[in-house]
Amino acid sequence: MISIILLILAAVKWTVAGELACWKNPLPPARQPATTVYWQCIQGIKDLAKMEKAYAPILFSRKPGAGYRVPDRWVTGTCYIHIDMDNDDDEDYITFHDIAVEAGMLATACVARPPHLGGTIAVGPKQLMNVTIFGVRRAGDNVLALDGEYDNLPGSSGSAEMLR
What we know:
Elements: H1 2-13, E1 20-23, H2 38-49, E2 58-61, E3 68-69, E4 72-76, E5 79-85, E6 91-94, H3 96-110, E7 118-123, E8 129-135, E9 138-139, E10 142-143, E11 162-163
Parallel strand pairs: 2-3
Antiparallel strand pairs: 1-7, 1-11, 2-6, 4-5, 5-8, 7-8, 9-10
Helix pairs in contact: 1-3, 2-3
């Protein structure tokens, strides 16, 4: 039920959302990023939507004393959802509900469609927080080390390319 609501809200907010960018695959076959599965991402997004006081604006920041310190992550299956601010001094009031809606929109645009690699979107009134979704490889219950192929993804100027 929550996933249907998130999809509807994502569709409604499509025109007012932050800049959304989906990963494309610029790497040689031996270094291909992992793909992920839409329904696994939706499970992680549901966890975001169930956070305590999901509708209350919270001060997100890397600074000590923030209402919620970032970075943070949620991993469900092969889906890795990461939230972080651009800079150490950034702060913004955001609700977990808004983060979940934007993450649902990101998953719909960048995971449900090929190449299923995920992407990133800026969220919040100041657009200072990034929600990033990408695939990870798993061995049983363990997420395998992000061995450099993801070093350049969230908010960097590295070699990973995006579709705009």
